[in-house]
């Protein structure tokens, strides 16, 4: 229960940050990427300060033996650059450049009641679910041929 | 045209970073929207409760802020609806196979100096710059 409540509170902090920063505003996001047009550098400040706070905070947090509410840290251990990572990221960038929403920006935008955000998130969930199904369907075959 | 907002963007970014640090400190988890969402789609992860709570908090936060402070969050989508859908589908497939998005790779992973996250962030940011250039200045679109 405590874990759930704290996750909700941390979600509030995240959503407030996204809303204030402009990441939930497609017009602002697209203008950040539009170097040849009406360039709005704001998002570089968002990424910069988020990264700085996260790096300093992680430095201290990850010195602990375990998180406060869980027995262990869940950290990705894969360090390989593979085709899935690079091709997936390239696709994500193309979609982000088309719609102006990234997942972390679109989810809090739902709370603004904007229809574009709801349409984007619905399409994105279909995309994630389709990709998840495709990978799970392919996996046994890959294992058999390997 | 959108207004350059260095101060609120710095503050907003700091809150995003703070949320990442808190989720690691309390739950030992990466505050990546892709990973959190993926666990809520079938087959649903056994630890769905914290994911749903984080998501719920993130969704009501902007509404709460507007309600309590009257702060104008500012929202405009210049993109025609069919392209919002196409963009959404592409983002969904991309973040799944890329194992993360701006929050997971761009903030949390980069903060841990993960080579995968640094590569992913360089690739998706680069692809976004190129895409917007092509859409706006080559195709003359939105």
Protein architecture, described:
- The complex is a heterodimer of chains A (146) and B (142).
- Helix content of chain A is 71%, strand content 0%.
- Chain A is mainly alpha-helical and 146 residues long.
- Chain A has one domain (2-145).
- In chain A, α1 (2-21) crosses α5 and α5 packs across α6.
- The N and C termini of chain A lie far apart (43 Å).
- By secondary structure, chain B is mainly α.
- Chain B has one domain (6-138).
- Helices cover 71% and strands 0% of the residues of chain B.
- Chain B is built from six helices and no strands.
- In chain B, α5 crosses α6.
- Chain B is globular, with a radius of gyration of 17 Å.
- The two termini of chain B are 12 Å apart.
- The interface between A and B is large, with 115 and 111 residues.
SSE blueprint and pairings:
The complex is a heterodimer of chains A (146) and B (142).
Chain A lengths: L1 H20 L4 H8 L8 H20 L21 H17 L3 H8 L4 H31 L1
Helix pairs in contact in A: 1-5, 5-6
Chain B lengths: L5 H22 L5 H6 L9 H22 L11 H17 L4 H10 L3 H24 L4
Helix pairs in contact in B: 5-6
Task: Give me a quick take on this structure.
Chain A has six helices and no strands.
Q: What is the string of SSEs of chain A from the N terminus onward?
A: HHHHHH
Distance between the termini of chain A: 43 Å
Helix content of chain B: over 70%
Order of helices and strands of chain B: HHHHHH
Kindly give the count of domains of chain B.
Answer: 1
Q: Proportion of β residues of chain A?
A: under 5%
| Multimeric organization | heterodimer
Overall pLDDT metric of chain A: 94
C-alpha end-to-end distance of chain B? 12 Å
């Amino acid at each position: 229960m405590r874990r759930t409540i704290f996750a909700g509170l941390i979600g509030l902090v995240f959503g407030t940050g996204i809303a204030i920063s402009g990441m939930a505003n497609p017009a602002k996001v697209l203008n950040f990427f539009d170097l040849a047009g009406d360039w709005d550098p704001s998002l570089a400040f968002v990424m910069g300060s988020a990264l700085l706070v996260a790096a300093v905070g992680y430095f201290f947090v990850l010195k602990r033996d375990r998180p406060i509410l869980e027995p262990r840290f869940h950290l990705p251990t894969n360090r390989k650059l593979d085709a899935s990572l690079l091709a997936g990221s390239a696709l994500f960038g193309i979609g982000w450049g088309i719609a102006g929403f990234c997942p972390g920006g679109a989810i809090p935008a739902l709370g603004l009641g904007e229809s574009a955000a709801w349409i984007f998130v619905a399409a994105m969930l279909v995309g994630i679910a389709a990709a998840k199904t495709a990978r799970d369907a392919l996996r046994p075959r890959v294992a058999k041929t390997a | 045209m959108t207004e350059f907002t260095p101060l609120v963007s710095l503050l907003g970014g700091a809150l995003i970073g703070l949320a990442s640090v808190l989720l690691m400190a309390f739950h030992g988890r990466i505050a990546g929207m892709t990973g959190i969402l993926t666990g809520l789609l079938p087959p649903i992860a056994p630890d769905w409760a914290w994911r749903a709570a984080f998501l719920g908090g993130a969704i009501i936060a902007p509404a709460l802020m507007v309600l309590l402070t009257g702060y104008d969050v500012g929202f405009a989508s210049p993109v025609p609806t069919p392209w919002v859908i196409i963009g959404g589908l592409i983002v969904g497939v991309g973040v799944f196979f890329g194992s993360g998005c701006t929050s997971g790779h761009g903030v949390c992973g980069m903060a841990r100096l993960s080579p995968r996250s640094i590569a992913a962030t360089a690739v998706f940011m680069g692809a976004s710059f190129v895409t917007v250039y092509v859409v706006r200045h080559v195709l003359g679109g939105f």
